[in-house]
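PROTOCOL LOG
Step 1. Enter all chains and additional molecules of the complex.
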Amino acid sequence: MQVEVKVKNPYKVFINEGLNLNFKGKVAILTNPKIAGLHLKNLLEKIECEELFIISVKDGEEYKNLSTIEEILNQMCNSKLDRKSLLISFGGGVISDMGGFAASIYQRGIKFINIPTTLLACVDAAVGGKTGVNNHFGKNLIGTFYQPKAVYCESAFLRTLGQRELSAGLAEFIKMAIIFDANLLDFIEKIDAKNFLKAQCEDEIFIKIIAKSVELKAKIVSKDEKESGVRMLLNYGHTFAHIIENETHYKSYLHGEAVAIGMNMANHLSYELGLLSEEECERIKNLLQKFALPTYYKIENIHEFYQAFFLDKKSANHKIRFILPAPLGKGIIKEDVPKSILLKSLEHFI
Amino acid sequence: MQVEVKVKNPYKVFINEGLNLNFKGKVAILTNPKIAGLHLKNLLEKIECEELFIISVKDGEEYKNLSTIEEILNQMCNSKLDRKSLLISFGGGVISDMGGFAASIYQRGIKFINIPTTLLACVDAAVGGKTGVNNHFGKNLIGTFYQPKAVYCESAFLRTLGQRELSAGLAEFIKMAIIFDANLLDFIEKIDAKNFLKAQCEDEIFIKIIAKSVELKAKIVSKDEKESGVRMLLNYGHTFAHIIENETHYKSYLHGEAVAIGMNMANHLSYELGLLSEEECERIKNLLQKFALPTYYKIENIHEFYQAFFLDKKSANHKIRFILPAPLGKGIIKEDVPKSILLKSLEHFI
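Step 2. Run joint prediction.
Step 3. Record the structure below.
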């Protein structure tokens, strides 16, 4: 199936539609050693172009930084890519974030395509044109809005994923359900967790998860490409998650795992504000735990944790913005949370 | 006077209109130690805002690289700038290129304003939204198209410039004359070089130079913001200049000086192709020399020099594109130059 993302330069997300690329000009594939070993042979059979280059960078969120970007740009220069060349990001969210960013600043911008190989990248990172890297101040603080020319999701790639990666991807789908569509929660609760976490569920399950996420995300991004309004809702759980990821130097949690904890934190805040019932909080916590996702993180220094909110990209003019479920199935942007209530909700995590 | 640049988000260039900024939110001024010492006091008297930060980075094209960008971004993070904050680039072309780039990738893009303090930045770098940095492969290979919200040119700043900086700025104006308007050549030839090079010419001379350049550039950029066509003409002299700057590690020549040599090289090529007469070549060479600009560079390795053309951003699909005057007052894009003729024209410089 195909989903169109109606931004200024519209593009399509192809889900299990097969992949055949014929490109006039040079192509560079950005990937990492693990993905390359598993799936590159398969991908190469489906690409025809004038000249091909493979750029392989270290795996993991802790390497999503400016120095890896410099390495990628140097390899692009060394391959003499020009403004008509194409970059393909072939990997998970880390690869698509960095590939999009590198493409957006190489010679002031060249074309790129995303071929996500993780569930998280399929349901979230590869679609919507947010690119970027982390620095020691925080997550994704450096980057651009830069849309791909196309995205190709293939469920076959997901069959080699480990349990943690599948859980992490599902976390972003649970996020979508909580802020946009409570019916999806029923669907998720019915998924056989054991099969799913071994990547042994039916293809239909993967396809429904990807298709629903992409449809919802495409709708939001089409309305608000540069996150000045409704797109902020997609940040549910992320305000907390980014701080956790930064405090743990991007080494302890996969992004989706941190988002799972972040959603539980946001729910506690929502509860303290009277926007969510205790039962609703429990329901989500149980759902996350059913899919082997963490829901707890020990905050060492509550003052530092609080200060870090001000570096969140949604914050402006000394105001912190939270995305909260109110109730399940509907996300709202809340910017007047009293400090005392925020701290009280964080005290569950000290 | 005011000139509008009619890009997607239009903005104005104010020339000697005075400067008074009142900004709700945080402001960071990016500058260098020399400019700050000369002019910052003056600027600060004209800015009101919620919170102010000064970021001062090393002076010179050889520091226009990703590591200085990282330093700037770290200082922006440390100052907790948010998406509603403003960055002001206060300096020459190096500062406006880097400030624009940093603004374009900080939190996926914040507002910026250019206040150029060199003639070159007034007539060229500060207007048009090209941002970027160099790497060891070449000049401006990394960057974005990202337009400022406004540009303020004040001739008062130019009074402290040294001779080389004034000459370098004039080189870009001579470029404009050669590709767009031969009448301007008559005007330039009549300028009293001695006074001009001591920054002792009348204000009217500065204003005419800036106004004419900005008008011409605004027209071109409005037609072709992202350089897919006519904007390439502004690269006259630059195809050669960028290689010279890179070979000399951005240390020997100011950008405008390298452009002067590059124009002379382009003219030699134009002559070899029968597009320019010997007299026209001589006329420009004399004009450049009248304003103390270099016109000769010794090419050490003609093969390496030739190979470097392929990393020029205008090159694509193995074709080098040259901007050539044909004749004076009219620039053309030429992409089928035989290698033998190109090498013959370069032999004047070995």
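Step 4. Note key features.
Chain A is about 45% helix and 20% strand.
Chain A has two domains: 2-160, 171-349.
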